[in-house]
Amino acid sequence: MTFEALARQGQTTVYHSLVASIGPKIREIRKEFIKESFYGFQQVEHRLETVVIIKDMEFINDSKSSTVNSTWFALESTLRPIIWIVGGVEPGNDYSILRNLVRTKVKGMICLGLDTSSIHEAFEELEIPMVDALSMEEAVQTAYYMGASGDAVLLSPACPSFDLFDDYEERGKAFRKAVKNL
């Protein structure tokens, strides 16, 4: 498996894979066997899950990322220019650790939720286009029109989902449904 293939499944997967390969290597298990075991890895639902690629635009469901730290890994791991869907119940997040990644990797933001003012405040100085959305359908459609071939639409909210959804799973399923309805 190439490093790029692992990276597409998230930086955390890369770290875990590297650690997981050390033990078998020490025990002198054949490289081919270790490599085969990585090919069988199944992507986790709602965690950097590629839903579909439409007109070379990749739609990535990372609904499980309900903290700033987990969203950092999602932004870091995404190799394409990003249209970022962010927001939910804002628990007083400190978005400062995301600013450099957002500056270099994000070309547009869809702020999803009932109150997105703190997200706007955190990133307005970057002068990246930001649009508010009150439903997942609106967020996905806006992201689709904001993006272009070669981009990634990344749902990685950095917030809990309780303003519009019961939990991250419902939010992720709503994302998948909205993407499939494009």
Can you characterise this structure?
The chain is α/β, with parallel strands linked by helices and 182 residues long. The chain folds into two domains: 3-39, no CATH class; 49-180, Protein-Tyrosine Phosphatase, Chain A (Alpha-Beta Complex), CATH 3.90.190.20. It is built from eight helices and six strands, in the order αααββαβαβαβαβα. The protein has helices at 3-7, 11-26, 31-39, 68-77, 99-105, 117-123, 136-146, 168-180; strands spanning 49-54, 57-61, 82-86, 106-112, 130-133, 152-155. The chain has a six-stranded mixed sheet with strand order 1-2-6-3-4-5. α6 links the parallel β4 (106-112) and β5 (130-133). It starts with a helix and ends with a helix. The mean pLDDT is 87.
Topology as a string of helices (H) and strands (E): HHHEEHEHEHEHEH
Mean pLDDT score: 87
Adjacency order of strands in the biggest sheet: 1-2-6-3-4-5
* CATH T-level fold name of the largest domain: Protein-Tyrosine Phosphatase, Chain A
- Percent of residues in beta strands? 15-25%
Could you give a short account of the major beta sheet? 6 strands, mixed
Q: Which word captures the global form? A: globular
Alpha carbon gyration radius: 17 Å
CATH superfamily of the largest domain: Mur ligase, C-terminal domain
Distance between the termini: 32 Å
CATH class of the largest domain: Alpha Beta
Quantity of strands, as a count: 6
Summary tags:
182 residues, alpha/beta
What is the element layout, followed by pairings?
Elements: H1 3-7, H2 11-26, H3 31-39, E1 49-54, E2 57-61, H4 68-77, E3 82-86, H5 99-105, E4 106-112, H6 117-123, E5 130-133, H7 136-146, E6 152-155, H8 168-180
Parallel strand pairs: 2-6, 3-4, 3-6, 4-5
Antiparallel strand pairs: 1-2
